[in-house]
Amino acid sequence: MNVSGPLAGYRVIELGQLLAGPFAGCLLGYFGAEVIKIEPPNGGDPIRRWREMRGDTSLWWRSLARNKKSVTVDLKNQRGVELVRQLIENADVVIENFRPGVVESWGLGPDEFKNCNPGLIYARISGYGQTGPYASKPGFASVCEGISGFRYVNGHPGEAPVRPNLSLGDSISGIHAALGVTMALLEKQQSGQGQVVDVALFESMFNLMEAVVPEFDGAGVVREPSGTTVTGIVPTNTYRCADGKYIVIGGNGDSIFQRLMVAAGYPHLAEDERLSTNPGRVEHEVEIDNALSTWCQQHNSDFLLQQLELARVPSGPIYNVEDMMADPHFNQRDLFETVEIDGKPLKIPAILPKLSRTPGETRWPGADLGSSNEEVLGQLLGLDESQLQVLKKEGVIN
Length: 398
Known about the structure:
The chain has 17 helices and 13 strands. By secondary structure, it is an alpha/beta fold. The protein folds into two domains: 11-207 and 333-393, Crotonobetainyl-coa:carnitine coa-transferase, domain 1 (Rossmann fold, 3-Layer(aba) Sandwich), CATH 3.40.50; 236-322, 2-Layer Sandwich (formyl-coa transferase, domain 3), CATH 3.30.1540.10. Strand 9 and strand 10 form a beta hairpin. The radius of gyration is 25 Å and the shape is elongated. The mean pLDDT is 97.
């Protein structure tokens, strides 16, 4: 297959399971990298069996494992370790998301390849990073979102912090890892040297925390949860409409606020000097929100959004996945790709960002377990059929 994309020609060995490492591999593979995913022979990556299934494979797998070659290797077997070592010796990138020290216990840590593959980029994703007093702690995304400070600011004051119904910390960490890998590959063009990319789930979420640190250090302010609003920016909120649907209105620019108030039938608030700038609006947030809530409760969402668009006020609906897939803008932007699974079509999300000259693509959906054993172990490592059969009998591969 003729592969294009900005990362075409780079070989990635993916040792991770579940989400953070595999999402990083998914991103790199979408933009052209050859991604060889190493899975345990007995069952493979657990996400193969998570959530909604079609047959014996999850629908999620078909998206997350797209463009990857599945190779089964038992890393508890020394012969399996040796096979992976040979693959890494001929790779450009390794991605692993095990607890710190695990790959070292297999003899596959980054220091093992400094002499034989000095240009290797070794991306390591863990809960708390490779150093520090928490490094050895198990760190799932849910836990790391909490310690990062991210969960604290989510939800309503006085109630338990809220999490989105997604593994956000894993996905954000996967993006950080892919970004780190691409930066390291770019630097390698100058130095010829590889390096370790150390990604921690809690740090990836910490990276999203905007001004909470300088605001606390400089003003002693701890940012608190604020429900559906954003502290210090008014008005920006979610409002319930007469038809039971919700819309988001962002009217926090000075001129935007004036147009919003006129559209909502409150011209006196548009002209009120107290509300002409954001600090004044913050002081009178309750008055403004009450006015907008009353307006929204009197009308259906479609009417409100039409009026807001005419007034050039940033606004929009709260979509679920059914709404997204029916929306013409999502479809014209090619945000859904269709693959074929057992003769049946399946839509999966496109991977962003869009590149005008070297776009990414889905070349195939997540593959069956061990489907690339012969291709990778045979062609890359030179094993013949009899050697592959011996490995199967010994349980090293399936």
